[in-house]
Amino acid sequence: MSRKQLNKRQLARIQQQQDNHAAKASTINPAFPLPQATLRGLVLSRFGKQLDVEIQEGELAGQVLRCFQRSNLDAVVSGDEVVLQHDATPGTGVVVALLPRRSLLQRPHKSGEIKAVAANIDTLVIVIAPEPAPHQNLIDRYLVAAETLRLRPLLLLTKSDLPQTPEQHDSLTALLTLYTTLGYRALRVSSKTGAGLDLLRAQLAEATAIFVGQSGVGKSALINALLLEVATVEGALSAAEDKGRHTTTAARLFHLRGGGRLIDSPGIREFGLGHIAAQQVLEGFVEFRPWLGACRFRDCRHGAEDDCALREALARGDIDPRRMQSYQQICNSL
Ligand SMILES: Nc1nc2c(ncn2[C@@H]2O[C@H](COP(=O)(O)OP(=O)(O)O)[C@@H](O)[C@H]2O)c(=O)[nH]1
Ligand SMILES: [Mg+2]
Ligand SMILES: [Zn+2]
Does the structural domain 278-333 have CATH classification 1.10.10.10? Predict the structure, then answer.
């Protein structure tokens, strides 16, 4: 898809066409102006009430319009698919409808209200590195969040170029094996050498991803290596400018080289389990699912109770002790 810059002449021509349509329509019946053409759009970002929306169809596909949304709609966020119309000023539009969401990421706001942050995310990329060393419990928390929100997780070990002691190498391999055995995807990459990045791009193509992980693991380096330079309309922020100006709150959607999309903000990178229920934690451990409901006591906490189906599975080796310990740790922290 071409993402060429929309110049003033083109904008003027579009406006002229719209004016012609409107003029024709009003000669037919001045009481009923022709309904304005609607277009599908993808919301890149929201700053206050203002939205940057990328047109998804027609001659102008790939162009970004500054939009407001109709006030009867739920708050539209980064990643939302919408229907929009051009507004009178060239380069601007109005979001008139919100299309159904595949997924929704929300966070508690300062006011205590739960607010939408980003929509239609498919993939949760959990970034780990040899340095700082990964915490298995944090990985498990992210996996529970992914299962709860119905996102596909991808465990990404970056900085694979760093020299590792044999012990480090063995423990990282054991960690990745724990998760691939459970059916999760895992990849080793390096932003520094580019190793594995093609495989990563292939995994992210056709999907919208968010990147999470401890500070210092290499998320920014990865994101920079994957980002596509996008042309924007005059006045809209480039990816680089945007990073500098909106470092605290706004989530923004970027296109990746290789066809995927990424939604990023510091708030998303730090997102955690938040307000999650004990039952969701239990269901978030995918390998526990065959035994849920099979304990003797309905309110079994899978600790010291008799006839606990989960502890029996653990004793048989059907559940890994590292995951059981992690589960107990998460429950105790709720
Ligand atoms: N050797 C190596 N260092 C990396 C790699 N990726 C990031 N780093 C370094 O790790 C540090 C933290 O990276 P950064 O991307 O800022 O991490 P973030 O906090 O997760 O965004 C920086 O000093 C980077 O230069 C990598 O693939 N290889
Ligand atoms: Mg960073
Ligand atoms: Zn039990």
Answer: no
| 8-98 fold | OB fold (Dihydrolipoamide Acetyltransferase, E2P) (2.40.50)
Please name every residue paired with 127 in a beta bridge, in sequence order, or none if there are none. Answer: 156
Per the structure block, which two tokens stand in for 180? 């691939």
* Pocket of ligand 1 contains residue 2 by CB under 6 Å: no
List pLDDT tens digits, range 274-297: 667 888 899 999 999 999 999 999
Residue-wise pLDDT tens digits, 48-101: 899 999 999 999 999 999 999 999 999 999 999 999 999 988 899 999 999 999
**Both structure tokens of 304:** 């010291």
In this structure, which residue's CA is closest to atom 3 in ligand 1?
A: 159
Largest pairwise CA distance in the chain:
82
CA distance 77 to 142: 22
Q: What does the DSSP assignment read for 239-250?
A: HHHHHHH--SS-
161 lines ligand 1 (CB under 6 A): yes
Rounded to two decimals, what is the model's pTM? 0.84
**Ligand 1: nearest atom to the Cα of 190:** 27
217 lines ligand 1 (CB under 6 A): yes
Average pLDDT, the chain: 86
First and final C-alpha spacing in the chain: 46
Task: Indicate the fold that domain 118-269 takes in CATH.
Answer: Rossmann fold (3.40.50)
- Structure tokens that stand for 218 in this block: 């290499």
